[in-house]
Each structure stands twice: as C-alpha cells, then as structure tokens.
Amino acid sequence: MSTKRRVPLDRKRVADAALNLLNEVGLEGLTLSAIGRELGVKAPALYWHFKDKQALLDEMATEMFRRMIAGTSPDPADTWRERLRKSNHALRTTLRGYRDGAKVFSGSRFTSLVHAEQMEDNLRLFTATGFTLAQAVRAITTTYVYTLGFVTEEQGTEPLPGQRREGFDLEERARAMEDFPLAAAAGAEIFADYDRHFTEGLEIVIDGIAARYGID
Amino acid sequence: MSTKRRVPLDRKRVADAALNLLNEVGLEGLTLSAIGRELGVKAPALYWHFKDKQALLDEMATEMFRRMIAGTSPDPADTWRERLRKSNHALRTTLRGYRDGAKVFSGSRFTSLVHAEQMEDNLRLFTATGFTLAQAVRAITTTYVYTLGFVTEEQGTEPLPGQRREGFDLEERARAMEDFPLAAAAGAEIFADYDRHFTEGLEIVIDGIAARYGID
DNA sequence: CAGCGGAACTTAACGCCGTTAAGGAGCGTG
DNA sequence: CACGCTCCTTAACGGCGTTAAGTTCCGCTG
User: Residue A151: its pLDDT value, please?
Assistant: First the structure.
C-alpha cells in the first residue's frame, strides 16, 4: 500500500488504458469495471470523466487517430497518389493495431478536431494539383471508406494480425461450395494475403480517381 | 384467447420479426425479450431455435441477403460494369433498408450458402470477359468493401434514409472548423447527397478496375 | 387406446452489465 | 476553521444474455 495519494485520472489516461485492454479482451470484453480495474479504480469513477460508455469509445477512436498522425508527418513533396497511399496504409495499420479496431473506430465520433488538419492539408494538395474541391473530397472519402470496409471485413476473420478467428475453416468452406467451383476457388483468394489484396484494391481506387478525373 | 394452438416458430419467422423490430428500435434496442414479445413468446424460447443471440443476428444478415437476391435476377446480357453497378446499388439499398443494417450485416456470417450462387455467376461473367480469377475476385470484393464502408459511414449520420442522427449539426461543425477552410467547406460535400456520392465513388472504383486490368 | 418421447415452450434464476444516487475523503481558499 | 470543489467509493437498480428445470401438447408405437 502506497503512502502517496493517487494522481487523478483524466480522459487520456482512461482512453489509453481502455485501448490496452481492448487488445487483450476485445470489444465484447471491454467493460467499464475491467477498465477501472486496470486503473485501480471502480467502474462508476469513469463517469466523472465520461458521460457514458460511448463517450469513452469516442475518446478511444480519437486517441487512435491521434497516434496515427503522431507517427506520420505529411511530406509536402508527395504527389496526390503517394499521399493517398500513405494515409490509407497508415489508417489500415492503425486499425489493425487494435482488436476490433475497425468496429470501434467506425462506431464512434471524434471528440476533437484531430482530423481537420490532415484533411485540410490533403485538400490543399489535391486542389493545388488540379482537383476541384468536390473531386478532392470524393477521392479522399472513397479511399477512406474502402479502407474502413476492408479492415472491417479483414478483422472479421483476423481479429489481430496473424491470428485467425475460431470457427473459420477454409477447407470446410471449399467443400461446402463444391457446386460452385469458381466461388470455391475464390476462397483462397479472399481470405488470405490481406496485405497484398489491400494494396491491390487501393491501387484500383487510386487508378480510378486518376482515370475519372483525368489527373495523373 | 384463441382456441387454436400456436403454430411453432422457426428460424425464418424469428429472423423476420427481428428484422421488423430492428427498424423500430435499432440494434441497441434489439433485445431477445423484445423479439420474443413480437412473436408472443418469452425470451428463452428463442434458444430452442438459436444457440445464442449472435446466431440470430447471423440469420438476420442471411435473410437480408436472401431478400436482396430475391428482388433481382441477374441479366445475362449485363456487361461486367453493369453487373457491378446493379449488385452494389442493390446491396446499398438493402443495407439502408434496415436501421443499423450495415453494422448488423458486417458483424455477422451467413448461415447458408445464399451468396455462393451470385458469386459464381459473377465470377463466370468476369472470367468470360477476360479477367483472371484473381482479378475478378479483386474487382468484386473491392467494390463490395467500398459499399459496405460507405453505408457504414452513411448510417452513422443517417440511420434510415431521410432521418438524421441526433447531435449532429452541420453548421456547428463548419463553425468549429473555421481555421481549416477547405475542410470546413468539405462538410457539405461529405454529409449530404449520399445517393450521388455513392454512385460517384462506385464509378471511380469501376473505372479503376477497367484501367488497372485493361478491360473495357 | 394407453403410454411414451420428443418438440416447443415457460418459469425461475444466475451473474454481469451500464448507469444513477448518495456520500465521503482530501485539498485549496476565505 | 469552515466551506466548497474535485474525484472517487459504496450501494443499488433495472435490464440484459443465458442456463436449468419443469410443463404442455402432439404424434407415434405397441
């Protein structure tokens, strides 16, 4: 037992602890009492810092994004293509860094304007390259929802990089689908090699932007 | 009180009732006792038909998909572009037909092979057009995760078509972002006109497929 | 036609969850 | 020294998903 008095919590320390715990127990195991335990505090204490659990999840999503941009400063020499590549690969890496990361992220709203600066910078780059504002927004959000959707699906079978969710058997799937040979063969192409497939899909979208808006 | 005896439930009738209820109360209000009430049955009765709540959600997702393909028979004369357009617009329409539809859908796994036939048919069309199997899979899943991600984001602000989620004020957002003029102006471009924006993004992806794989 | 077995439920209960209410310890300020 | 604020605890609530045990009724078999 320590003689010192506890240093009070704040929103960030709670979000940090919750993000740590998330990787151990997943979203369904992420209870307020478990988070409190991690912090040496009882569950209701968290209500001093957050109005409800969703507010804490929002802070967690915001913190995830904060860590992402902390790890990457935008290169002014980037082309728009490189910028899209980097930011979406970084987004995927970030989301995959947490169990159920995509679910937590897409189910929440930012508690601050962390994303505004990156957004502004990207829009500046794009409009300076020749995109209209509307085109720039379309380009950025289309890649964004692609990445979000991809990781959501990915984490449905691989909660964390390298792990496989239980009850999922690729061979069993192929056997059940023997009446649909192409679809059966597609299984190996769908549920493996996520890194390469993500990159390929992202390049498709980027090529589409270039083709549709006539910008190299 | 009726003299007739209750006709027993089955998985489909439960899933139907649950899907109806979903639109009234949303995913967070979709409790087993509420579903039971809808069917004139107590909550534990549902465990006769489903091993747990997730199994019921899985059946709901499967039923959503079943209804989608029931409403659309594939036209053999479709080009691959038309096929991608139709199937992804149909998917979005389906998901938007249920409150939290995208969340329910992407958090579940099919309980039967409903999707195999459509998949097979699409893969046949694509490979016959000149795509390799790997390219065909990439084309189909890339558009698929785009649509899933799009509707997930869309339903974050518009739970059902035409409604707006509470606590979301576009003007307030613009005011908070006054230091980031482009990002602020982008708000109107992001959070409105989802129909047009979805179509535009989908066309981007389709153009990207054509450009990247050299197929018209 | 009696009796049996299984199908399809109900009732009761469990532990846990998010959340609220009330209260209390420790601190700075007048 | 008392007050008030910050930050937490204890106690309690209703509701949730789930399990166990018991009940009812149908259809089959001998």
Answer: 98
pLDDT digits (tens, 9 = 90+) for A44-70: 999 999 999 999 999 999 999 999 999
The residue of chain A nearest to residue B209, with distances taken between CA atoms, is A204
From residue B69, how far is each of A69, B25, B154, B209 by CA, in Å? Answer: 42, 26, 22, 24
Q: What is the pLDDT of residues A131-160, one digit of tens each?
A: 999 999 999 999 999 999 999 999 999 989
Name the one residue in this structure whose structure tokens are 């151990």. Answer: A24
The pTM assigned to this predicted structure is 0.95
Q: What is the DSSP string of chain B?
A: --SSPPPPP-HHHHHHHHHHHHHHHHHHH--HHHHHHHHTS-GGGGGGT-SSHHHHHHHHHHHHHHHHHHT-PPPTT--HHHHHHHHHHHHHHHHHTSTTHHHHHHT---SS-HHHHHHHHHHHHHHHHT--HHHHHHHHHHHHHHHHHHHHHHHHH-SSTT---TT--HHHHHHHTTTSHHHHHHHHHHSS-HHHHHHHHHHHHHHHHHHHHT--
Other CB atoms closer than 10 Å to residue A70's CB: what's the count? 9
User: A49: Cβ under 7 Å from strand C?
Assistant: no
- Is any atom of nucleic acid chain D found less than 7 Å from the CB of residue A38? no
- Strand D-proximal residues of A, range 49-68, CB below 7 A, are 49
Do A133 and B182 form a contact (C-beta atoms < 8 A)? yes
Question: A204, B203: Cβ pair inside 8 Å?
Answer: no
Which amino acid makes up residue B188? A
List the single range of A4-13, A40-49, A70-79 with lowest mean pLDDT: A4-13
Q: Is the pLDDT of residue A216 over 50?
A: yes
Per-residue pLDDT tens for B57-110?
999 999 999 999 998 889 999 999 999 999 999 999 999 999 999 999 999 999
DSSP string, A28-53: HH--HHHHHHHHTS-GGGGGGT-SSH
- Report the C-alpha gap between A145 and B120 in whole angstroms: 26
Cβ contact B52 with chain D strand, < 7 A: yes
- Kindly report the nearest CA distance between residue B91 and chain A, in angstroms: 14
Structure confidence by residue, pLDDT tens digits, A107-140? 999 999 999 999 999 999 999 999 999 999 999 9
Query: Chain B residues with CB inside 8 Å of A106's CB?
Result: 149, 152-153, 156
The amino acid that residue B194 corresponds to is: Y
Longest dimension (CA), chain B: 71
